[in-house]
Amino acid sequence: MTGAARLDTGRRPALPAARAWETSDPYAAALRSGRGPLFLRRADGWLLPLDVERWCARADTVDLEVLDRCEGAVLDVGCGPGRLVAELASRGRTVLGIDVSEAAVTRTVRLGGHSLRRSVFEPLPGEGRWDTVLLMDGNVGIGGDPHALLTRVAALLAPGGLLIAETAPVEVDERAHVQVVDATDGHAAGGSFPWARIGTRALLRRAGAAGWRGAGQWTSGERRFVALRSSRSASSSAEPPNSAAVTSSQRVRKPSADSPVTPA
């Protein structure tokens, strides 16, 4: 990070109902067990499988290729059960995972990573100072509005910072309201929420319109990725340096909607 990683432990708003999938019982149960099958279900019944087993395993070869491209301090948005955060931490990198799921945060901490239970659209540590932001495993769909997410990520990155996003395996650009479904019993917990699926070409088109610069695209193991450079100038506002640095000495034992969690 261009300056120490920072952590504001002040109170934050409660989790909105729109985050139903991350806080749903099927999702939490799948992360605790490390197994699916779990799906996102559209209103028309179409199902998108969620790769729970891969997310809960160690970082694989494709993941490692992505992590090798990361620069400086890394913010993993929608870190899930924490495989990427744990791998970067094991390399001695400054890294923070954020996720709105308590089960995801708890598992990340158990693996030895730093994690914070918070949405990307809420105030975050080190705003305007992160060197790399990750949007893996379909997380470019968070909020159902890629333009809004790209704008938010640009504000989190340092000038010239790097965004690495995993795009859909097919060329698609769609938004929908979905629910998380446990395929073993068809149970869906919580209300529907907005989600997006976006392929490489569509993401590059949207990013270009938002002022991002392309920094690469590649396919590995049937997964597709895009790297983008922030065009935010150094004169843009960043988080004021008035909050405590993220260090291994910080300890919060019980994860909550507004609490930082680091390994004990």
Folded structure, characterized:
The chain has 264 residues and is of the alpha/beta class. It has one domain (6-261): Rossmann fold (3-Layer(aba) Sandwich), CATH 3.40.50.150. It has 8 helices and 15 strands. It has helices at 20-23, 25-33, 52-56, 61-69, 83-90, 102-110, 146-156, 200-209, and strands spanning 6-7, 38-42, 47-50, 74-77, 95-99, 115-117, 130-135, 157-167, 173-182, 187-188, 193-198, 213-220, 223-229, 244-245, 260-261. The strands form 3 sheets. An 8-stranded mixed sheet has the order 12-13-8-7-4-5-6-15, with helices on both faces. Strands 2, 3, 9, 10 and 11 form a 5-stranded antiparallel sheet that branches. A two-stranded antiparallel ribbon has the order 1-14. The radius of gyration is 17 Å and the shape is globular. The two termini are 23 Å apart. Residues 3-18 and 236-264 have low confidence and may be disordered.
